[in-house]
Amino acid sequence: MTREASILNAATRVFAAAGYHAARMAAIAREAGVADGTVYLYFRGKRELFVALFQRGFAEFLAGLDEALASSTPPLDALCAYHLRYLGARYDLAVITQVEMRHSDPELREDIGRIVRPYFDRIEAAIAAMPHDADIKVARRMVFGTLDEQVTAWVRSGGAFDLASLAPEVSRLLRRALGGND
Amino acid sequence: MTREASILNAATRVFAAAGYHAARMAAIAREAGVADGTVYLYFRGKRELFVALFQRGFAEFLAGLDEALASSTPPLDALCAYHLRYLGARYDLAVITQVEMRHSDPELREDIGRIVRPYFDRIEAAIAAMPHDADIKVARRMVFGTLDEQVTAWVRSGGAFDLASLAPEVSRLLRRALGGND
Amino acid sequence: MTREASILNAATRVFAAAGYHAARMAAIAREAGVADGTVYLYFRGKRELFVALFQRGFAEFLAGLDEALASSTPPLDALCAYHLRYLGARYDLAVITQVEMRHSDPELREDIGRIVRPYFDRIEAAIAAMPHDADIKVARRMVFGTLDEQVTAWVRSGGAFDLASLAPEVSRLLRRALGGND
Amino acid sequence: MTREASILNAATRVFAAAGYHAARMAAIAREAGVADGTVYLYFRGKRELFVALFQRGFAEFLAGLDEALASSTPPLDALCAYHLRYLGARYDLAVITQVEMRHSDPELREDIGRIVRPYFDRIEAAIAAMPHDADIKVARRMVFGTLDEQVTAWVRSGGAFDLASLAPEVSRLLRRALGGND
DNA sequence: AATGAATGAGCGTTCATTCAT
DNA sequence: TATGAATGAACGCTCATTCAT
Q: Which of these, D58, D52, D54, lies nearest to D86 by C-alpha position?
């Protein structure tokens, strides 16, 4: 594992455990097994490290999503299953996603928003690809909000249940909500 | 207005504008027109002030909700309309709710969770009161997640559209999702 | 002595002993007998503390100078005597003056320059008030440079000789240099 | 140009532009076209590099001075002309001389003092070589202070005038000050 | 109850220097 | 010799909280 990768991994663990503000750069460095200053050779600062972490996690998420969407499963079902399976297998990332996506630092929030937007587009496309009679924006927020809240509950429970197994019920309800059942 | 109330009001404005971490106790005191030390005569500290704020806001929200639920409207529709109408008229509170409800400080998050739980019970009761075939937990998270995400989008937009007017479409979709249409 | 005054006194000692860069705010606070944060209640930061120190020292210097110039002694002689007497009685201030007046931080240097300029005007006025045939700028630099270098040598020696007693010889040579002897 | 020489040249530029404290070893290395570590093969550290720079610059200055003093011009006049001509043609070196000669780091200041002393001896010798009635130390400081302050003013002006052309007026005034006019 | 001056722990970041290659 | 990635000590400043008045 490259130094950069171990720093990112360490950062994921520390940010997830402590939250952005309480996370200490020194703790990340120690967790990564490098000196404090070394972190700054790879990332400009705390904020950049966090954004980079988020960005790469999301890029991987999106890449996998596109693969999942390419299968023969109806897009919305594929998307729901993928969302819950992906985060259900990455507790730390899920924590970060839930906790930090609505961050109080406006700049950070904007960075995050820019990173997440492509996912919103995928959701809208998945909805548009099925028969439905819903307001597309309200529907998109319903889909994301529903999935996101399942993850939040899972994180709140400390990962006590199997997130991925919620997929069938979630997508059944969402499909029916959108009016695309026949 | 009592001193306590003006401190709470000031805190609402400051927390909403700056976020929990960037909010300065001194700014809250100044905004409330009291000395720094005075805040501590009414609230043990920053965290407690924030929790108190959240708690009272939520208590009022819940009280109004119960009134709304007492009308002849179907509970779920009443709840959706109320949620969007209430926050749609209180931008600062909405910001705080969205941004801070999933806070990175674990202790704070737990406090918030305890405060919000009664609302989850109301949502589950509203679902139970209608014909439906959904998993109650998944459904409750769908309802809350859907409503919450509408608010988040509204906050992100800077309050650029009318939140309350989304209610009919939101409750139509939710009703259909739950299978309670006939 | 007010807190502000004790901080300024402490700062004078610490800056003189260590130089601007090596001087630690914590050392100044400790020397002043206050907490670290207290310094920042009176001065915006290290730079501002230094400039304030310089400014007040110089203001006092200038006020005393104007008094000295008001006597019946020829201005240039009064000025030389005053310069050497004033700094000769304030070793720490002399150190700061010599060491920091030509500071490498451009902003700081500019602040210092602005503060010192009025003294240059007084010197030029003192020269103009006597019969002389010298270029006024070259002459002003000669007067200041000559006085300044006596102080530098005194500081370098650790204050080992009596600075004020150099005044007669210094002003005799300067008077003669300017061509004002008859 | 040897590596050592290019490092010294780079250091001159960087120290002049940024000042001792703000000068970065990495910047010097980059400017010299060598790796960071390479600088330490030639100089023990930042301080030593600076002292070496100053030392060599001064050695060259002194060598040229001795040549200038060997001419038939009266020593003091030769010295003044040389001082102003030499620095007037080397802005970077002049900046370093003015800004850093009275450095706040005591050890560095002592090194510098040791390096400059031979020049003081030359000045005293030049004074001694002419008829005069002045205290030799006061006179030496007058000569150096006067010259130095011309350079300081020139540096402060950003090199806006011709330094060397001040020589006749400077040495005229100094000669007259010392009482060596006939 | 109210004040607000004082406190002091806490931390992100820089950069001279080292050393394995 | 030369490299440049890695090191880690060092420090100015903030701000929640306290407490003498």
A: D58
